[in-house]
Design goal:
With 71 residues, this protein is α+β, with helices and mostly antiparallel strands. Helix content is 24%, strand content 8%. The chain is built from one helix and two strands. A hairpin with a 5-residue loop joins strand 1 and strand 2. The longest helix has 17 residues. The chain starts with 33 loop residues before the first strand and ends in a 10-residue tail after the last helix.
């Protein structure tokens, strides 16, 4: 049996606007379907958001520690 945990993240988490690679936050129009970051990452907008939501959930659950990439 696989054990799963549901973690609720804030609805204000900028999951779509944050680069899942470097953490940079940038504004996007809703019509933009591809996230392209200055770090070189180009990824589907929804996949980028999913990766950020997964990371936020893992941080809140204590399974991983948040790394401040700006430092």
């Amino acid at each position: 049996m696989v054990r799963k945990t549901v973690v609720k993240i804030s609805c204000w988490e900028p999951s779509t606007k944050t680069c899942s690679s470097c953490g940079q936050v940038r504004m996007m129009e809703l019509s933009q379907r591809v996230y392209a970051c200055e770090c070189g990452l180009t990824i589907d907008r929804d996949l980028n958001a999913a990766l950020n939501i997964k990371r936020a959930g893992l941080v809140l659950s204590g399974d991983v520690y948040q790394i401040d990439k700006a430092a």
